[in-house]
Amino acid sequence: MSNAPADLLLTALEKTNEALEAAFTILPPRYLEAMEGFNILAPEDITLTLTANSKAVSGHTFSADQIGCSLVITSDNIVNTVTASDELLLPAGVTGSVSARLYYDAVPLTSGIRRLISDPVIAANSQTCSGSRLTRWEPHSTRGGFNLPWTVGNHVYMLSSYNPGTPTLYFLSGNRSSRPRESGQPAAILNLWPMPTVAHRLSVEAQWSPTRLTMSDWTSPVELPIDDRFANYLAAMTEAKMTATRYWSCKELKEDIIRQGIAAEIALSQVPSDFGLPNSLARTPIGY
Length: 288
What we know:
Layout: H1 6-26, E1 33-40, E2 44-50, E3 70-73, E4 78-84, E5 87-88, E6 96-103, E7 106-109, E8 113-116, E9 121-122, E10 127-128, E11 157-158, E12 169-174, E13 188-193, E14 200-208, H2 216-219, H3 228-242, H4 251-269
Antiparallel strand pairs: 1-14, 2-6, 3-4, 3-6, 4-5, 4-11, 7-13, 8-14, 9-10, 9-14, 12-13
């Protein structure tokens, strides 16, 4: 397959991803859902250099897990937000080297998570955070990565009105970075309120997105922990989708191939409990 023309490879890749997406919608929920846990760190005091009316930051580099976190700058009068390794959401109101406190009130979520099924729970006291305003996003859509507005929720507060404490509310928002495709950028942000004053451990039940194969998967294949039947069903569904492309030349077999693809979809919807690896560490349908 790796020796096939590039345009044929791209078409096959597209149809395979379509089959994976179809399998995701067909499989029973137990194969698509898993519990996920996160660490919420205690606030951190940092020093950084700012220029008034600029969003740029120097003297400190924010890590990927700090994207979306609130930043209280001692000499400024607002709560700002980290949007990139060297950038803030709002222009600074001061110039020079300043002290600031970074609150870990945001949890970066990877593109593997499609939606949250439950409200987040703080492990130490089993307290549930409520008040979600957005629970689903599409990291592969064409609208900058999301099919809903990025401005869900108000994450900018006047310094005089913020009151750190134990989180009781949450909302989800798209990554507001001006460089959302930058390496290491999260697909979305789980925001907590109020800003936590101590470390917490957070759990939430999530539904995972199907893996989207890339061109490198053709050249560097890996063995996946999945049932052979799933691989066979996926192959049949992919082949059926290929019959609609200009590369399909065997008209005599077309109807049979389409019927086999439909049969594979029906079989997937009726898989037994021992079919695959529900809630597997791979975090995607049946280990994919």
